């Protein structure tokens, strides 16, 4: 059986590591790669969309990153216990008309024994911002270690 460490049950350190690995994956905007972090029968609720397996999750991510351009995400651990992690996050993006947004959200995650995410429930709100109000400034891809997180940014 392949595993995706860190594995549950999570400690504070391994929960923080799991959150950062998820952030890094999503910031890659590589739906094929990101989908491999989820079980074959993963179940998602994301806003008003539902995914009932890995293929549906991958298709969701492909649609998402075609719409949400120049996507940059920061996640932060909120709570954890056993095989569950709760995170809060924010991401910035623009649409194809150049309108910028900061999206705020919370996610609840449940992991299988192999470290793959089996359930993901997300609540998200979008706030229009001016480009000059952006706070997430790094080249597309992984957030640099010295870039402030949500708490440091006052979010």
Shape: globular
Task: Indicate the low-confidence ranges by residue numbers.
Answer: none
> Count the strands?
6
Helix content: 10-25%
Give the class from helix and strand content and strand pairing.
Answer: alpha+beta
CATH class: Alpha Beta
What is the tally of helical segments? 3
Mean pLDDT: 97
Domain count: the total is 1
H/E element string?
Answer: HHEEHEEEE
**Straight-line N-to-C gap:** 39 Å
Radius of gyration from the alpha-carbon trace, in angstroms: 15 Å
- Reported by name, the CATH topology is Nuclear Transport Factor 2, Chain: A
Determine the strand fraction and express it as a percent band: 35-45%
CATH architecture level-2 label: Roll
For the largest beta-sheet, the strand count, sense and barrel status come to: 6 strands, mixed
With strands numbered from the N-terminus, the spatial order across the biggest sheet is: 2-1-6-5-4-3
General description of the model:
The protein is of the alpha+beta class and 155 residues long. It has one domain (12-130): Nuclear Transport Factor 2, Chain: A (Roll), CATH 3.10.450. The chain is built from three helices and six strands; from the N terminus they run H-H-E-E-H-E-E-E-E. It has helices at residues 12-28, 31-35, 54-67, and strands at 38-46, 49-51, 69-81, 84-94, 100-111, 117-129. The chain has a six-stranded mixed β-sheet. The longest helix has 17 residues, at 12-28. The mean pLDDT is 97.
